[in-house]
Design goal:
Elements lengths: L1 E10 L15 E10 L5 E10 L8 H7 L3 H5 L2 E2 H12 L3 E5 L3 H12 L11 E4 H9 L8 H7 L11 H14 L2 H4 L4 E2 L12 E4 L3 E5 L6 H6 L1 H4 L11 E8 L4 E8 L3 E11 L5 E10 L1 H30 L2
Parallel strand pairs: 1-5, 3-4, 5-6
Antiparallel strand pairs: 1-2, 2-3, 6-7, 8-9, 9-13, 10-11, 11-12, 12-13
């Protein structure tokens, strides 16, 4: 199997968000990639400018960051011409590697906009090299930019950043300079396409946590009412864990819980709620073994949120009554 290290540059509405095309907020203007073999040796590269059809004028910030001008874009070929060639270049047996998760999302969004059939496997597994760098060299939680990782690993900086092919080369060099064998089991799952049924739902188990991606629901409330989302089963022994802190919302887009497994101890549950392109909601649920101290911190967080809600309700009632 080969590894396709992908990087994209994209443009957006130069006249502000109110003028953007809702179904294509970011238009790909450059595709860059490096092909690594199973021994992580660079065996080929790909790079091409894309001539846009939606945002033909470069956004000021995009131009400053990439150095790509509107004149440069006119020299490129259209996405519908370049993408099939890129796909053929990728070959048959490969896995994408990207810095972060955004590139695969925007690539597929552009494919969808131009009505190009999405033949990528589902679920689409890939390597998030930004995450792998953190797992290999830092605490596993930090998310550094590419330049930081290159400098940390003392990789020669021979190309300017923020051009697709150059950034793909740098990302490939990060893979080659970390202990890839140690972290290669930590695959990521692309969420541009979500499971459409219970049969398609994603279930992944790693050594320190597990992750589930649900099918869509009509509302957040319906998602959280589903018994399968609420139930906590230890990913080590597969036994039901006893709920200690019921699922509660942090007021944003996540819910938390704490459960206890008699064999393996405390389990932290987290559900991140995301919206699909058709306005429904799906959940990304993770379960992770924690210690008693972290369980107490989650309880403290729940109590703080309760107090804040009480204060808001109290202020609201005072405003209504005038007292």
């Amino acid at each position: 199997m080969n590894y396709i290290v992908l990087d994209l540059e994209w443009n957006q509405s130069p006249h502000g968000k109110e003028y953007e095309r809702e179904e294509l907020p970011f238009e790909v203007i450059e595709i860059g990639a490096v092909k690594l073999n199973e021994n992580l040796e660079i065996i080929d590269s790909f790079g091409e400018i894309i001539r846009p059809t939606v945002y033909r004028e470069m956004h000021r910030i995009c131009k400053e960051i990439t150095g790509i001008s509107s004149r440069d874009l006119k020299k490129g070929r259209y996405f519908t011409q370049v993408f099939p060639e890129f796909l053929a270049w990728c070959g048959v047996d490969y896995m994408f590697c990207t810095w972060g998760s955004g590139d695969l999302v925007e690539l597929q969004r552009n494919m969808q906009y131009y009505k190009i059939e999405n033949y990528f496997p589902f679920p689409l597994y890939f390597y998030d090299v930004q995450k792998l760098f953190s797992l290999s060299c830092e605490d596993g939680k930090s998310r550094r930019n590419l330049k930081y990782a290159v400098e940390f690993l003392q990789i020669a900086e021979l190309e300017k950043y923020h051009r697709a092919k150059a950034d793909a080369i740098y990302t490939a060099e990060v893979i080659r300079n970390i202990d890839f064998a140690k972290v290669k089991d930590k695959v990521s799952v692309d969420c541009f396409r979500v499971p459409q049924s219970k049969m398609e739902e994603v279930h992944l188990v790693f050594d320190t946590y597990c992750k589930d991606i649900s099918q869509p629901y009509d509302s957040k409330e319906a998602l959280m009412r589903d018994r399968r989302m609420q139930m906590v089963r230890c990913y080590k022994c597969k036994k039901n864990a006893k709920r200690k802190i019921r699922w509660f919302s942090d007021g944003a887009r996540a819910c938390y819980s704490v459960s206890y497994c008699n064999e393996h101890g405390w389990l932290k549950g987290k559900i991140r709620i995301r919206k699909t392109t058709d306005g429904r909601y799906y959940g990304i649920r993770t379960l992770k073994l924690i210690d008693r101290k972290e369980a107490d911190l989650i309880k403290e967080k729940q109590e703080q949120l309760r107090e804040k809600r009480k204060l808001r309700r109290h202020k609201g009632s005072k405003q209504e009554t005038g007292f």
